[in-house]
């Protein structure tokens, strides 16, 4: 029988947390989104509920400005309520599914889960949206009675548009709980479920980041530009228009490097481990705040022109400065685009 999820709680209101709440709202399911109290409040502000919820309220209101929109319609925003970890954590007892979506840091996640555990009602699910940290370590901080209802639920950005949802059990996860969560997510949230093992970065990020890292190494070895790499690894070879480096901008450079570092640090038996060692230019981009779309600049940057239009600039990886975007065309790729059958197109290119 289809499980009934009447309300969810989302712990963390960053880009993913707020967008996950938005997608539940799209399905008609109300949510409570919690985040930290701003650390820089004055004494007077600390007594003001509006000031205490400033971060989470701002994140939820920003959903109306996202493009593409995470909401089916603007009125869905009314299904999202807000609060903060200090004042409102007991309210998660109303939820049937609590999803942790805080910073991708083991210590932070374990602290939030430990604090949330006493308020998770009997029968409710608790999951983490981690993209690849150890779920066994997170489960270990929970009471024994809650561990069978804990699992990984890795949504992909943006949740409204990305079908994939990775579900990761721990050794203690009740198989019936995982099956029920998967059935609900397929039927109500429209997700396609991949069940993975609790290994560094699970399935999608392990495979995807490996492919992107290999591509970036080839880019350096061959002296290719940002435009050339995306021209070679986009629709012409059966991939989305985001190709490789536009996808990195969408994911966010900080997240991308963190995922790579996590595999490089923890996957000691992986023969491809060294591929995940982030190249210096990526670390320099993070240090300069060139984080991708979330910061307004990554491998690409959009700026307004004098006539009110828009133009895209691309990053020179040697100077880490922006220049006018050049057209990258390869006659072999252009010729292959006329071949509709993807396997035949790839054979022609190879």
What would your notes on this structure say?
The structure is a single chain. The protein has helices at residues 15-26, 43-46, 49-52, 54-61, 85-88, 106-116, 135-139, 175-187, 204-222, 226-232, 245-251, 253-266, 280-287, 331-336, 342-349; strands at 8-11, 31-35, 80-84, 97-100, 125-128, 150-155, 164-169, 192-195, 300-304, 310-316, 321-324. A hairpin with an 8-residue loop joins strand 6 and strand 7 (164-169). It is globular and about 60 Å long. The model has no long low-confidence stretch (mean pLDDT 94). With 350 residues, the protein is an alpha/beta fold.
Secondary-structure map:
Blueprint: E1 8-11, H1 15-26, E2 31-35, H2 43-46, H3 49-52, H4 54-61, E3 80-84, H5 85-88, E4 97-100, H6 106-116, E5 125-128, H7 135-139, E6 150-155, E7 164-169, H8 175-187, E8 192-195, H9 204-222, H10 226-232, H11 245-251, H12 253-266, H13 280-287, E9 300-304, E10 310-316, E11 321-324, H14 331-336, H15 342-349
Parallel strand pairs: 1-2, 1-4, 2-3, 4-5, 5-6, 7-8
Antiparallel strand pairs: 6-7, 9-10, 10-11
Helix pairs in contact: 9-12
Characteristics:
Rossmann fold; 15 helices; single chain; alpha/beta; three-stranded antiparallel beta sheet; N-(1-d-carboxylethyl)-l-norvaline Dehydrogenase, domain 2; 37% helix; globular; eight-stranded mixed beta sheet; 2 domains; 350 residues
Number of domains: 2
Provide the CATH topology of the largest domain: Rossmann fold
Alpha-beta content class: alpha/beta
**Model regions low in confidence, pLDDT < 50 over at least 5 residues:** none
User: Looking at this structure, what is the CATH superfamily of the largest domain?
Assistant: NAD(P)-binding Rossmann-like Domain
Examine the secondary-structure arrangement and name the CATH architecture of the largest domain. Answer: 3-Layer(aba) Sandwich
> What profile does the largest beta sheet have?
8 strands, mixed
How much is the average pLDDT? 94
What's the order of the H and E elements?
A: EHEHHHEHEHEHEEHEHHHHHEEEHH
CATH class categorisation of the largest domain = Alpha Beta
Molecular shape:
globular
